[in-house]
Amino acid sequence: MEQKLKIKQIISLTQKSNFGGGKYYGYTKEKFLGIVKITTNKNIIGYGETLVGVYSPKLFKINLAYISKFIDKKNLHPALDELNRLKRNKFFFDNGILKSIIAGIEIAIFDILAQANNVNHGTIIKNYFKQKTKPSNNVEIYASAGSIKSSLKDLKKDINYAKKLNISTFKGRLAINKDTSKKIDILKNEIDNFAVDLIANTYVKNQDLNNLKFFLNKIKNTRPAWLEEILNTDSLFEFKKIKKYGLKFSYGENYNSFTDFINLIEFYKFNFVNPDLSHLSIFDFVSLNEHLNKKNYNKKIIIHCWGGAINFMYSLYSAQVFHEQVKLVEFPITESSFMKKVYPNISIVKSKCFIDDRVKSFKD
């Protein structure tokens, strides 16, 4: 049936919440989701999600309309081929906003393929990329929530909610300020495993390494599972001074080029990379996994997810297929309205997330 399916319409949808309220990094007023909706000539509808929609809904709509012209009226597999052709234009499509939107379109096309074949998304991804490894419906997740401006009370509340969901690893977002020590103590004492996202550091143009070193000296004895976004991209050359603290570091949520991730691993020597699959093309993600397997690396990927239900479910399915390299998948628990459709379709046991086999479409 899938050979007869053609793209009839591609439209952008946005969903918003009151999360942020203009107070959090990256959001002007509220947090949005950018949803790609593709309708076929047989009226099968697929949904995808792009990280661009979280930060710039207007640019998402404009650029989706532009990219759609390249694949309108095409069959699904030729449409995927055309998107890959576009990405080979290194000056234009291979990173940034356009690449992020292409990732969202790919998710929607795979959603249609899953429905047309009456199988789950993990099976579609496995078969499409000819993966021989048996998928694992046993993916480990970690919880994340809040902002650098979250109060101590809110941080405790978020951690308790993660524990209620049977999740034993929690990532908190910290800034280096007067509350840093208190928040580190809460993370250390309230949850089995914790990670720290220093997202504010990625916004600092001229970073004060003395402040960062003070923070690292303070946290190194607490042994966090990893530290994320430790520097802004312009200051990555300083990472060699940071590695000596003996901690584990992850980077890459803002990247969506295969080459960028290879540089993070091979040149900078990060312990983990954290691609977001609503931002990085699944084809680049597959190439990244192939590279890591060829080099005999193990569990180098911590999948970033700071969107909604579609991104999270797609990340879980991808992690099932590429479980040899995926260590963890992020489960954002801050904004429940974006994630409410997830809960009936999953079960969580000791941080392992299991997907209901009956789920065949992201509209579910």
What can be said about the biggest beta sheet? 10 strands, mixed
- For the secondary structure, the number of strands is 13
Q: Any idea what the radius of gyration is?
A: 20 Å
Rough shape? globular
N/C terminus separation: 21 Å
Helix content: 25-40%
The computed structural class is alpha/beta
Low-confidence stretches are: none
Strand content: 15-25%
Number of helices: 13
Q: What is the average per-residue confidence, as pLDDT, rounded to a whole number?
A: 89
- Give the ordered list of helices and strands: EEEHHHHHEHEHEHEHEHEHEHEHEE
Structure description:
With 364 residues, the chain is an alpha/beta fold. The protein is 38% helix and 20% strand. The chain is built from 13 helices and 13 strands. A hairpin with a 4-residue loop joins β2 and β3. α3 runs antiparallel to α4, α4 packs across α5 and α6 packs parallel to α7. The protein starts with 6 loop residues before the first strand and ends in a 9-residue tail after the last strand.
Brief summary:
This protein has 364 residues and is an alpha/beta fold. It contains 13 helices and 13 strands.
Features:
single chain, alpha/beta, ten-stranded mixed beta sheet, three-stranded antiparallel beta sheet, 13 helices, 13 strands
Give the topology.
Elements: E1 7-20, E2 30-40, E3 45-50, H1 52-55, H2 57-71, H3 76-87, H4 96-117, H5 121-128, E4 139-144, H6 152-164, E5 169-173, H7 180-190, E6 193-197, H8 209-219, E7 227-228, H9 239-242, E8 249-251, H10 258-267, E9 272-273, H11 282-294, E10 301-303, H12 309-321, E11 326-332, H13 336-339, E12 346-349, E13 352-355
Parallel strand pairs: 4-5, 4-11, 5-6, 6-7, 7-8, 8-9, 10-11
Antiparallel strand pairs: 1-2, 2-3, 4-13, 12-13
Helix pairs in contact: 2-4, 3-4, 4-5, 5-12, 6-7
